[in-house]
Structures are given as structure tokens and as C-alpha cells.
TrEMBL record:
Record keywords: Apoptosis, Hydrolase, Protease, Repeat, Serine protease
Keyword Hydrolase listed: yes
GO molecular function: serine-type peptidase activity
GO process terms (BP): apoptotic process
Record's protein name: Pro-apoptotic serine protease NMA111
Residue stretches making up the PDZ-like domain: 24-99
InterPro entries recorded: PDZ-like_dom (IPR025926), PDZ_sf (IPR036034)
Pfam families: PDZ_1 (PF12812)
Keyword Cytoplasm found: no
Length: 148
């Protein structure tokens, strides 16, 4: 690695670390919010994560925007079902019918818990999943609700 110190270029040998555990390999879009496992910088700041369902973006006009689900929030429960992982979350939302309400338990980035209801709309905001495969390509998958 080359660095500049005191107006001099220095060549340094830097030991590399394995980083595959820090990479995003799964993204879920649900009700207009993008969810993923908390990325490395979040895990550096928050030692005890409320869950591994972390909201990274909200789409304009979506149910998540209209019902004030916030970016950087963790979803810990859907209809009182614990959602510690994205797979738990997908299992919990699978039974929510289109145009019906669900209850979310959320913890903010500042560790403040609250509850919020949200009405889903699968026509405009379907549940989808992006998975990184073995050759680092993203694979798109639409997930149908069991009772749509």
C-alpha cells in the first residue's frame, strides 16, 4: 500500500483480512422498503443488534413511506412473530394478504422501540428478493404471498 506521510510516499505491507462475512448477499424489497442484514459500519456502531432485518431505503409513494417506516430501522416482529433474520421476515410476511394491515415492531438506530401498522400493496410493491449466487451474480426472485 502506498501512503503519503510528511510529504513522502511510503510503501507499507498491509495484512489483508477475510471480508466475506461483511458483504451483502441478500436483499429483500417489501412494501416499498429495501431490507438487508446490517452492513459492516452498522455492526461497528451497534454491538447488540435488535435484529438482522435492517431498512436501508424507502421508495417514494410506497406503503413504507406512507406509514413512516424509517431508513436505518430494524424490524424485530411482524404480527408478533419474531424476525431475527431476513428468512424469518419473509416467512412472517408470506401470510399477509394483499391490501391488508400488519403490525410491525421496530427498533430505531438509536435503540428506541415502537410499533407501527402498515397496509401492504403487492400490485405496486411486490415482495422480491435478490440473492448473490456462487459466482457473485445477483438473482432476482419474486415472492408471492400465500393468501393473495
Amino acid at each position: 500500500m502506498k501512503v503519503v506521510r510528511d510529504k513522502k510516499i511510503l510503501d507499507l505491507r498491509v495484512k489483508l483480512a477475510e471480508t466475506t462475512y461483511m458483504l451483502t448477499d441478500k436483499i429483500v424489497c417489501w412494501a416499498g422498503c429495501t431490507l438487508q442484514a446490517p452492513h459492516h459500519s452498522v455492526r461497528q456502531v451497534i454491538k447488540n443488534l435488535p435484529s438482522k432485518v435492517y431498512c436501508t431505503s424507502i421508495h417514494q409513494g410506497s406503503p413504507s413511506k406512507m406509514y413512516f417506516l424509517g431508513v436505518t430501522n430494524f424490524i424485530t416482529h411482524v404480527n408478533e412473530i419474531p424476525t431475527q433474520t431476513l428468512d424469518d421476515f419473509l416467512e412472517a410476511v408470506r401470510d399477509i394478504k394483499d391490501n391488508s394491515y400488519c403490525k410491525l415492531r421496530i427498533v430505531t438506530y438509536e435503540n428506541i422501540p415502537f410499533a407501527q401498522t402498515l397496509k401492504v400493496n403487492y400490485h405496486y410493491f411486490p415482495t422480491t428478493e435478490l440473492l448473490k449466487n456462487d459466482v457473485s451474480e445477483w438473482v432476482f426472485k419474486k415472492i408471492e404471498a400465500t393468501n393473495s
